[in-house]
């Protein structure tokens, strides 16, 4: 099958097309095959490719096949999902530790990672969602804020942050979104009560306090701004970074806990259904062929992308 491998740690140029044998279900009892139509390019893929996460990977080293998010067609029956079902999900790539990701024509997956894709949702939209939307949902769970709380979401113009804004507003929270000034109207339409444009930390703090003079109950830090934003959290509040790379040092009984996205088929099904009903917006920035993975990484690395870049397989 066609794959794209990370041939060595480095820049996007280390991504090279290759051929590998199709995975054999006999090698992994309980797993099922999915023929992929689309794979999302996540920020985490970029970090793994660069070598930034090498220490997390133990024995695993290049060459390996990257990729968390996928959407495609089921080739083996799974509980409640007959052969031919359109499915999406994500491979918990680091935890799996096999280096057999979704930049490939076929993957072997645990049925518990899979959710059916509603007819109204195309494969590219479906592949833009799993890791990011589940991480946003699970970050909100981790915060465990009572309904009506005031929450700051950073990186609200990005993929994870944009989901968090929408899901927090749906949960009845008052959301302050830190994002690009150009996205202010859209973020309000998605449920943000207030939008603070990105800028120097002191300007951001002033902007947030303008909407929440009492300070906020929680911060979901999808932009990994970290310590400079701690002053906006109430004493005893909660601060959840989207990665352990930039954990603030806790103060004033603020609970600091990072979120790690984990597969959750039932939750993903609900999220995909919301997308199908037009109640949750997902945004695909670019669609490129699998063989253009290096270009996809270049574009993702350059930032300022309005959404997820997806590889068509
Ligand atoms: N814990 C997990 O399991 C998990 C799962 C998924 C993702 N993540 C992590 O979550 C983070 C967000 O992922 P994503 O896919 O949403 O990435 P993304 O789409 O690139 O979003 C990040 C957003 O933050 C913005 N940003 C960067 N620095 C900023 C600053 N100083 N002030 C304000 N905004 C800033 C970026 O703007 P520009 O593009 O203009 O720079 C971008 O809009 C990444 O670090 C990713 O690795 C973690």
Q: Can you give me a brief rundown of this structure?
A:
With 313 residues, this protein is α/β, with parallel strands linked by helices. It has helices at 43-50, 93-96, 123-127, 130-143, 159-170, 184-189, 201-211, 265-276, 293-302, and strands spanning 2-6, 15-19, 32-41, 64-65, 69-74, 86-90, 106-109, 115-116, 150-154, 174-179, 194-197, 216-221, 233-241, 255-256, 284-289, 308-312. Residues 42-44, 131-132, 135, 154-155, 157-161, 178, 198, 222-225, 242-243, 259-261, 303-304 line the site of NADP nicotinamide-adenine-dinucleotide phosphate (NAP).
Compute the number of strand runs. 16
Share in helix: 25-40%
Bound molecules: NADP nicotinamide-adenine-dinucleotide phosphate
Give the CATH H-level superfamily of the largest domain. Answer: Medium-chain alcohol dehydrogenases, catalytic domain
CATH domain topology of the largest domain = Quinone Oxidoreductase, Chain A, domain 1
How confident overall, as mean pLDDT? 97
Uncertain runs are none
Domain Enoyl reductase (ER): 10-311
InterPro entries: ADH-like_N, ER, GroES-like_sf, NAD(P)-bd_dom_sf
Protein name: Zinc-binding alcohol dehydrogenase
Organism: Streptomyces filamentosus (Streptomyces roseosporus)
How would you explain this protein's 3D organization?
The protein is α/β, with parallel strands linked by helices. It has 2 domains: 2-128 and 283-312, Alpha-Beta Complex (Quinone Oxidoreductase, Chain A, domain 1), CATH 3.90.180; 132-256, Rossmann fold (3-Layer(aba) Sandwich). It contains 9 helices and 16 strands. Strands 3, 5, 6, 7, 8, 15 and 16 form a 7-stranded mixed β-sheet that branches. A hairpin with an 8-residue loop joins strand 1 (2-6) and strand 2 (15-19). Helix 4 (130-143) packs across helix 5 (159-170). The radius of gyration is 19 Å and the shape is globular. The N and C termini lie close together (11 Å). The model has no long low-confidence stretch (mean pLDDT 97). Pfam families: ADH_N, ADH_zinc_N_2. Residues 10-311 form the Enoyl reductase (ER) domain. This is Zinc-binding alcohol dehydrogenase.
